[in-house]
Amino acid sequence: MRRTPIYDVAVRGGATMGEVAGWLVARSFGRGPAGGMPALLWDESHWRKILIEGRDGARALSEIGALPQGNVSFPVGAGIRLRETTIYRLRADQLILLASPSVADERLTALFDIEWGGDLSVTDITHGQAQLRLTGPAAAGILSRLCGLNLHTTQFPTLSARQTSVAKTAQLIIRDDLPGGLLTVDDQTSAVPSYALIGARSLGAYLWETLLDAGRAFDIRPLGSDETASFLAPSSGSGLSP
Amino acid sequence: MIADRRRLAAQPDEIIDRQRPLTFTFDGKPYPAYAGDTIGSALAAAGMDLLSRSFKYHRPRGLLCCAGHCPNCLVQVGPEPNVRACTRPVEPGMSVTSQNAWPSLERDALSLMGLAGRFTPVGFYYKAFVHPQALWPAYEKVLRRAAGLGSVQYAVDQYSVDQRSYEQQYVHADVAVVGGGPAGLSAALAAARQGARVLLIDENPALGGHLHYSLPQHREARDELIGAVGQYSVVGEPVVGEPVFSRSVFSESGVEASGLGITVLLNTAAIGAFEENWLAAVSTLPRKQGGSATLYKIRAGAMVYATGAYEQPLVFGNNDRPGIMLGGAVQRLLRLYGVAPGHRAVVVTANDDGWAVAADLLAAGVEVAAVADVRAEVDSEQLTAVSRTVGQWSGARGQQLEALWGHTALSAGGGRRVSNVTLAPLDTSGRVDAARAKTVTCDLVVVSVGWSPANGLLAQAGAPLIFDERRMEFMPDEQGSGEGLERVFAAGRVAGAHELECELTDGRLAGQRAASAAGFGAPPDVLALAAQELSRAAEPSRTSAHILSPGSGKRILCFCEDVTDKDLEMSIAEGYDSIELLKRYSTISMGPCQGKMCSRNTLHLCARANGWTVARTGTTTARPPVTPVSLGALAGRRMEPVRVTPVHEWHRANGAKLMIAGLWLRPEHYGDPLAEARAVRQGVGLIDVSTLGKFRLVGPGVPALLDRLYINRWNNLAVGRVHYGVMCNDEGIILDDGVTARVGENEWYMTTTSSGSGAIFEWIQWWLQSGWGEGVCAVNLSEVNAAFNLAGPRSREVLRELTDADLSNETFPYMRTREAAVAGAPCRLLRIGFTGELSYEIHCPAGYGLHVWEALLTAGQAFGIRPFGVEAQRVLRLEKGHLIVGQDTDGLTDPVAADMELTVKLDKPDFLGQRAITRVMRDGARQRLVGFKMAASGVVPDEGLQIVRPGTGDWPEIIGWITSCRFSPTLNETIGLCWLDAALASRPGAVFTIRMNGRLEEARVHHGPFHDPEGVRLRE
Mean pLDDT across the stretch A203-221? Predict the structure, then answer.
């Protein structure tokens, strides 16, 4: 059984651990419903993270259907969602594909099987990266204590990615808002700010604890996979899956 | 309890809540207060005039500015030193103590320093305490005790334990406005109305600035402005009375929802302005609200500085006595806190503002004995009206107010409180006629002689300042230019607009210009700007050229450092005539007020003493912080990243002693490092080497790239083989080493040292971006894979328990790699031997790390497996004579000197360091890295010790140093690596001496590995 980098701190935090897609993850922290909470934090380190390097990256993704067919062009820092995967361009010649563990392996496996013979390298970096998701109306407030990025929507809209420093560690921050109404009771229309922080696995436990500490003043709440399942179900339209 | 005897009846604008009385203590005595009081206002209400002692002469000091600008009211609050009593809100049960006084504030023995003033002029300690040098530590102790500020305390009670949290927060805005007075409010509103997101910062607990306590007729304008800002407030929380400092202030979605808005930060002082509109500000909350301090790092599209002006003191005899206050301080006490600052006042002024204070005092029932106005002639209609009003009010109260035109204060009398002031006329040339002086009895002297623009932040932002001869103030130069200045604006008093209408217009225009510069709306009409320029120019000067009156007693120029006008003259006479040198020598403006109370007067007196103009004299350089800030706020939240491997918790749970290696936490040992080393030599051991750098290189150009990066050859390495490599920079200095495996025709797997991992990946990326390795992709797998080294003669047997792969020496020999499932996990095996034993480096996806580790230990139980740490690994590699890059090498080590000559392949076309290494190979190395054995048993020299031989003089000659040394449990003797004179190093068995704790210990040169020199064991 595989373990995420948050395994030990989650156990110390009182989480009930369990298996999800071959990974031992926190299933529940048992702290009550998430609705209405200003800030939520959960572990997505078991999500598939595939790094595609080289000029032919976008073509390869089109080939397997992860990107639309044809001329695929989107700027550095921007992302595209297609079904249950999201792809962000980190550099002109570097893309990252994120997929929930529930995504069928076949499509992703095909990516590795492509024989281009050209300028392309596909690497599964799932095991090497912690992926923590910070969500809620206060998420930006918490992040702004740890990170100098301008988080305003005009500068950092949903479905975009920035590489920056968070709590003195190198992180890739991805903004991927949840639809309004998933978490907030009184505001059904505004999207709920949601950020995925992807960084070195070895720093995952540190970052998890630092985020919880910085979010204490905002009543941040850690969630397990069972607790996120209720509002991240595919039917919710969030684009995310538990 | 001490009575609240100077408290007035309720005032219309007061900010205290008389329904919420409370008590606190000052130097152990209980004092009454109301919610909303500051420590200073509550003590003033109780008639406590003496709040502190001065820095050097321990002169009594009381409230002077009541605005947090001067050093006169510094007190200790629990563990927090140097708190300004005049601005810190009082809290129930708060324990306040005086500082820098012994044995008590009232009877401070160190005030005798004042009597010795003539022997301790400025700079005396530079000259007096430099000899003998050895005594300086003793001098320092005495000086620190005699002259100092507060102290950090560690006693345990509610207020003594510093439980505050320190945060840092990044804030972004289109327009940032510093100063919440009329100009700042007007600017913020104008910018927001043009669609900009505005951040409004003010150091006070409420917006409005001087509108709260200056003229009563300003009340309407104040309420209107604040009400308008309230409408634009993002969070809709009250912006008056209560600090707006909640978590929702920076709820970014809130800004989004309103579309535009003004975010207000109260109790927040801007401390520094940097390039590109980068502003630092510190906010401090009262303890009842958590007591946290937050450093805001603000980046704005455009800046408006509406920072106002500091009222300036007058330099006359004993001008620092408690009871001598600035006009603004008196108005604050009267209006905001309902406190009468005295019973009988004398006002010394040079502008209309002083008369307004006199009117306020009369209205509050305080007798005004005299108003001494520096001006000889009245040329302002407003002044005439104000003075007439003052005269009428005093007459109505049956008081004899004396209006003394063309007069100034010469000196003050009294001890712990002013008891009289001597007033003297000025002649037509501005000289004081002391012969016609008269003394007036009073317990309050109000000084209102002028203003100095608060332009420190503007100057830091790069705005040019020019001296305005008519105003006697430095003004921002509208015509000035500089990088980024097109997005920096000044408004209000800092720009010379003192009248309310002028301030408001100034703010509005600055706000519009700032919004436009940030990309929101059009700039104001040029005619409006020109008209405003004329309005500012039409304002009467408020600042007097009269600065100094030569009365008896110390005439304090710098209140922080007790520097007098005589000290300034002496400094200039000694040659410190430039304003920058004068500042450094005299320490004027280097204390807690940072020049707010003294810079302007110093500048003018310096100019006069030199016979220069003020413009030629210039100003000192404005540097952050403009306001004192705690080190805790600068440090912020404690963030110390640590890297842990996937097996970290197992190490902790199994008794590992963890050591810090870079950011990593690694097991140094599990209790007995020598036993761990023995286990590897005799049976089998397992070490966690997940910290190693691991890179995946893909593409047909990889061999050519490696040939350039490494000093050895790669292009003929077959698939499935592993090769050791050394990497140098272009100066031929060793950067890193490690093994690299060719895992496929176009795929390679490189490992580096743990410490070199990040730097080497960047190094590779740099060369890839520079054009080397066409089509090569490099991916950092250092975190993706965990790695363990299973080492020892029985390692093959252990591994066989967990894999179906053929591990025989024939099919999987030394320096080979292959993929295999180990305990069900997909792994890459590298058969290499850093420890000198048969060993397998097992790389697996990090998520399986703990599983594989535990499986190996379980399988190895039957073979006596032991986990081993870094310490045992160091012993084992030393027995093999392997160097560690960074420990046995330094920033000057080339591969020739490090005994790696055979690794260098000079016949390659080109590689990094080739030319430098060729030169070294031709000329030979001066020193060499070589092994040694200690002659005496049981002696283990520390790493870094010097190797010496008898020199020509008294001192021995240093010919080398120890880089690694350990007791070898295998050889039962002490071995090591050292840098040694090349000639000596070339002779095996040559004896040399190591200087160790004052004695010399013998050692012998050893060539090659200490253990298994033929390398049989690792190839078995």
Answer: 94
